[in-house]
Specification:
The chain is mainly alpha-helical. The protein contains 5 helices and no strands. The chain is elongated.
């Protein structure tokens, strides 16, 4: 596998990591955000943001719009969003390390490298799930129903893509 294709795999993996939460929310990103009660986080310039983080941010914006996050829910939303961004950043770094070394790995090292990535993904999902649970409990019943619908739709889509006859 060449490094260019391997880099795409990292982007794909980050998308898969986030997809149960995001892919069902297909609405366009808006430039308006609800006011926060805390100081906004500094955002790097677009030129310095990795494609993976841009992808995650686009999905987060879509999900935020779909769920109609209110100012009262903003702190819990930002906690969830930051965990997702941190997970994507860490996973991208891990995939880059693997891609840089894959040409010299033996089969055992290759397997161990992928095992480490899978372990990271599991740990990341545990953190993301906890952050989402905090957000979910702060949502109104209507927002929770929307989240449930998004997750169900995505789960069915993922199952259909990966079902084996």
């Amino acid at each position: 596998m060449n490094k260019r294709n391997f880099g795409f795999s990292a982007l794909t993996a980050a998308g898969l990591l986030a997809s149960p939460l995001l892919m069902g929310a297909a609405q366009a990103q808006t430039s308006t955000t609800a006011p926060t009660t805390t100081a906004p986080m500094a955002k790097p310039s677009a030129a310095k943001v990795s494609p993976m983080i841009m992808h995650v941010n686009e999905h987060l914006a879509s999900l935020k719009k779909s769920l109609a996050i209110t100012p009262a829910e903003e702190n819990n939303w930002e906690g969830f969003a930051q965990v997702m961004r941190d997970n994507a950043t860490g996973l991208a770094a891990q995939y880059k390390t693997r891609a840089d070394a894959v040409d010299t790995m033996n089969a055992v090292q290759n397997m161990e490298s992928y095992t480490a990535i899978a372990s990271t993904q599991a740990d990341d999902m545990t953190r993301l799930s906890a952050a989402f649970q905090t957000l979910y409990t702060s949502l109104t019943p209507a927002q929770q129903q929307k989240a449930d619908q998004i997750f169900r739709t995505e789960a069915k889509s993922m199952h259909a893509k990966h079902a084996h006859g």
